[in-house]
Design a protein that fits this description.
Helices cover 34% and strands 18% of the residues. It is of the alpha/beta class. It has a single domain, classed as Aconitase, domain 4.
């Protein structure tokens, strides 16, 4: 349901990440932000929460649902700092979409810039979905961006996607870097007509 840049929906198995007010320092600890690229960010996703006192992997959901692509979270997910590294780490780990009760605004906007739909739903619906994933770890969840629904098993959740996110995903204009490259000739033409821009 993704055609080039146009994202009308995503699907895959789920991973429940329970807890309210999960901040970006939990998602991607600050000490890993010194790297100059995002290449290794998947390795640092929930780094501390996923390990025991000996540094070994524990029973954190991300360790138990390794191949999941739909994260299901609770209230105010991604709060704290505005670090882009948090959704970058989730995307590089394999997350294609997020369903939650609510998201910090900057986190949600960072998801949009990566082409990751972030759908909000009620506490009851999100909790039921998290419980269903625990019982059905190999079953798919489908996010329909246009209809703003989340489907799993025989259940359809009526969700909500921010208007700006929905438009950007469906119209394929979420990747601003790609958008600038695709309009490079127009940018160059406009620049050449400006009296204060010198040719290099």
């Amino acid at each position: 349901m993704a055609d080039d840049q146009h994202i009308t929906g995503v699907s895959g198995t789920g991973v429940p990440i329970p807890g309210d007010d999960v901040d970006t320092d939990q998602i991607l600890p600050a000490r890993f932000m010194k790297e100059v690229t995002f290449d290794n960010m998947a390795d640092y996703l929930f780094y501390d929460a996923r390990r025991d006192e000996n540094g070994e992997f524990n029973d954190h959901p991300l360790n138990r649902f390794e191949d999941a692509s739909i994260a299901v979270v609770n209230q105010n997910f991604g709060c704290g700092s505005s670090r882009e590294h948090a959704p970058q780490a989730m995307m590089r780990w394999g997350v294609d979409g997020v369903v939650g009760e609510s998201f910090a605004e900057i986190f949600r906007d960072n998801c949009k810039s990566l082409g990751i739909p972030a759908v909000t739903a009620s506490h009851e619906d999100v909790t039921a979905l998290q419980e269903w994933i625990e019982d059905n770890p190999n079953s798919d969840i489908e996010i329909d961006v246009e209809a703003e629904t989340v489907t799993y098993g025989d259940t359809v959740i009526e969700g909500n996607i921010d208007d700006a996110m929905k438009e950007a995903l469906v119209d394929g204009i979420w990747d601003t870097t790609q958008l600038m490259y695709s309009n490079l000739s127009k940018v160059e033409k406009t620049a050449s007509e400006l009296p204060y821009v010198e040719e290099v």
